[in-house]
Write a structure and sequence with these properties.
The chain is α+β, with helices and mostly antiparallel strands and 314 residues long. It has two domains: 242 residues, Magnesium transport protein CorA, transmembrane region (Methane Monooxygenase Hydroxylase, Chain G, domain 1), CATH 1.20.58; 59 residues, Methane Monooxygenase Hydroxylase, Chain G, domain 1, CATH 1.20.58. It is 55% helix and 15% strand. The chain contains seven helices and seven strands, in the order ββαβαββββααααα. A seven-stranded mixed beta sheet has the order 2-1-3-7-6-5-4, sandwiched between helices. A hairpin with a 2-residue loop joins strand 1 and strand 2. The longest helix is centred in the last third of the chain and has 67 residues. It is rod-shaped and about 120 Å long.
């Protein structure tokens, strides 16, 4: 738990206990980070009950709701470290008022470093500045990750003809899963920011609204790119499945041709190999080579028949 207050041109740190009693004219940001079995932290008393429940909710999706003179907004962004959590993006829940912001996250969010730097530099003067800066930082951090999925899929398409089919199928399946997981929250991020830009608060300036719409547009573009990655991955997966089926068919045809050639030969050798009296030419020295030549002619005849039917071209 950490609290920063901006008064004039200076930014100082105060204890979380002092935030609730602060009555100055500055801008205060209280951030709570970490997880616990009974909730992440005790929410300050100035946060309304509905907003407090939203801050401490276990499962969240990006959203924005107006509550009295403030707003609760939940966003998802890139985390500082990759975890085994099923959700690829880290949730941050923010209660925003004109001169005070309370944010909560379970895991470290990469974008918060940029927000803190802007706070230390004195660029954040109210809740509107905070949310617009946070939205810009989250979208900027997430954009390269989305673009990297498209680049990896381009590499898969380039290796389509000469690559290992089974390895490509696994890689494409992973990329598609990642795109679906990211889009699950990127599209709601766009809607939440668009809603925030429409709230009728004086502390959301025209410039803040412009930055919020810009971040929402960036999330919309990322959602479209993720949808394109998902569709391209599905198409590539189908093409690889068809290619694998074609390879299996070719191998099955080759096996069938070989088996068909040896089927009459097996009959001839089995017939002449019976251990009974009366086998023709059994006492002639040339009989063995004659049978071999006859079998060779049968094989040529079968191959010729396959050629005429154009089965060998497949």
């Amino acid at each position: 738990m950490r609290a920063l207050v901006r008064e004039g041109d200076s930014v100082t740190e105060m204890s979380p206990a002092e935030v609730a009693d602060y009555r100055g004219e500055g801008f205060v940001w209280l951030h709570v980070e970490g997880a616990g079995h009974d909730g992440m932290a005790i929410v300050p008393p100035y946060v309304p009950g509905m907003a407090a429940n939203a801050l401490l909710a276990t499962e969240t999706r990006p959203r924005c709701d107006e509550i009295a003179e403030g707003a609760i907004i939940n966003l998802r962004g890139t985390g500082m470290a990759v975890t085994a959590d099923s959700d690829r993006l880290v949730s941050i829940r923010v209660w925003v008022e004109a001169g005070r912001v309370t944010s909560v996250s379970r895991r470290p969010l990469a974008a918060l470093a940029s927000v803190e730097a802007a706070m230390q530099a004195g660029h954040l003067k109210d809740g509107g500045d905070f949310v617009s800066t946070l939205a810009q930082a989250i979208s900027t951090a997430l954009d390269p990750e989305v673009a990297d999925l498209g680049d990896q899929l381009d590499d898969c398409e380039a290796a389509f003809e000469d690559g290992d089919i089974y390895a490509l199928r696994r890689r494409i399946a992973v990329l598609r899963s990642q795109a679906i997981a990211l889009r699950r929250f990127v599209a709601p991020d766009r809607d939440a920011l668009a809603s925030m830009a429409q709230l009728p608060f004086d502390w959301i300036s025209t410039e803040d609204r412009m930055h919020l719409r810009d971040a929402a547009d960036r999330f919309a573009r990322m959602a479209e790119e993720l949808e394109a990655v998902r569709e391209r991955a599905a198409l590539l997966h189908e093409q690889l499945t068809d290619l694998r089926a074609e390879i299996v068919d070719r191998r099955s045809l080759a096996i069938a041709i070989v088996a068909f050639i040896f089927l009459p030969l097996t009959f001839v050798t089995g017939l002449l190999g019976m251990n009974v009296e009366g086998i023709p030419f059994a006492d002639h020295a040339w009989a063995f080579w004659g049978v071999v030549g006859f079998c060779f002619l049968i094989a040529l005849a079968v191959l010729g028949w396959f050629a005429v039917r154009q089965w060998l071209d497949d």
